[in-house]
Design goal:
Largest sheet: none
Strand content: under 5%
Number of domains: 1
Distance between the termini: 81 Å
Number of strands: 0
Helix content: over 70%
Shape: rod-shaped
Order of helices and strands: HHHH
């Protein structure tokens, strides 16, 4: 059971890393080897493509989560932090400009 789960996960990751053309090629080859009908092969290919897209999305989400976690751990500023700083600087610059104009 544990090995089957491991193989399924690794297969999902492997399929997720394939290009669309490679996924189609994989599905066609597997369908031919399994001697599927044309309809079965088409459904199988569609299912493999969907699984590939789902796997890609999950991998991207995991990578994004890990990158964010690493950035937070390092204490680096993110886009939101920089936007807040820019707004504060803009407001400060505006205040300074008004005071400078007032003195003239």
């Amino acid at each position: 059971m544990k090995d089957l789960l491991k193989k399924s996960i690794l297969t999902g990751i492997g399929i997720g890393l394939m290009t669309k053309d490679k996924v189609k090629e994989f599905a066609k080859k597997t369908a031919d080897e399994a001697k599927m009908t044309e309809e079965e092969a088409r459904k199988f290919a569609d299912e493999v493509l969907k699984q590939s897209e789902d796997s890609k999305q999950k991998i991207e989400e995991m990578i994004d989560k890990q990158v964010k976690k690493s950035i937070d751990k390092l204490g680096l500023a993110n886009k939101e932090d920089l936007e807040k700083i820019e707004k504060k600087l803009s407001k400060l610059q505006s205040t300074l400009n008004k005071k400078a104009n007032f003195k003239e």
